[in-house]
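Record type: monomer structure entry
Structure origin: computed from sequence
Chain ID: A
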Amino acid sequence: MFDGKMTRRSFAATMGVGALAALAGCGGSGGDSGSGASSGDASVKVEMVTDTGGINDQSFNQLAWKGMQQLKADNGWEVSYIESKQDSDYVTNLDKAVDDGCAIVWGIGFAMSEAVNSAAESNPDVLFGSIEGTNETGAENLVAVAFRSQESSFAEGYIAARMSEAGKVGFVGGVTGETIQAFEYGYYAGVEYANKEQGTKVTYQGQYAESFTDAAKGKSIAQKMIKDGCDVLFHAAGGAGIGMLEACNDAGVKCIGVDQDQAVVFPDYTTIISSALKRVDQAVYKVSNGLMDGSIQGEENIVMGAADDAVGIAETHDKLPDDVYQSALEVIEKIKAGDIVVPANKADFDAYVASL
């Protein structure tokens, strides 16, 4: 479900005749557009632009595409994607998506937020969606969707602390910014919550790869953390985080995945004990449907969390003691109920720890 920040207004009243006319002629195949276009005579066309992680990042871009494919399967809509190879591609690719004449254009990833805002402002007759961005100008044709990633990360920090034998856990981040810091401080807070509950003194170590694609850098950071004594590692680093998973698997060290259930995505990496879920696919699916049926309007910043079942922990838990897994689920329920308010930045983290 979605929270009360959503309001209702008819699609036609919001966007006018120009947007209705945009329901034809979306391209999006060939070259940097990849082979993502689905053929058919759909009357509604939706296109997404990836960030530099690409469509096969095993993370939020791939999840967004899964949501797009569900729109195709359930609604018969025509869907496509354009891959961005570098940051400078964002503006060009969004312009191309607009030129393709789609009803909705999605920008995936917080790094694209500025470019999506600019594209929405320049093209008021096109609907835009932004994953992990913000609607900075109040544009009536832009819906930005963010996630309380700190909430699922908190539960994983709790798991990490409970599972650590060495008393030291690690975090590998992608590019420094508010979005990834929410993962970091949520995770760190979960460690401190477990310390308070269990009477333990598990310590934390974190480092950023400053990349979502450099698997070698993620692996190198993880190897250093393992050498320093960390025996449970968590990542929020996209492709760079896959390097962390590999390092942990090579060393026989427990690790925690992100966005998808990475124990299922990477079955050869046998040390993955859990994953922090972000249901980007359902956000893309539900918001796209809402934009077209008028139940969701532009001019929105939607934040989805545990209470919306938009974040959580993976069902796969065969490598966790049942009491640890069940306790982590109880932590999620406390977050849903508002009994635990998870910090998403350093200032809130400091205040949270002081309150324990």
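Annotation 1: The chain has two domains: 11-147+280-308, 149-277+321-355.
Annotation 2: The first helix runs from residue 11 to 21.
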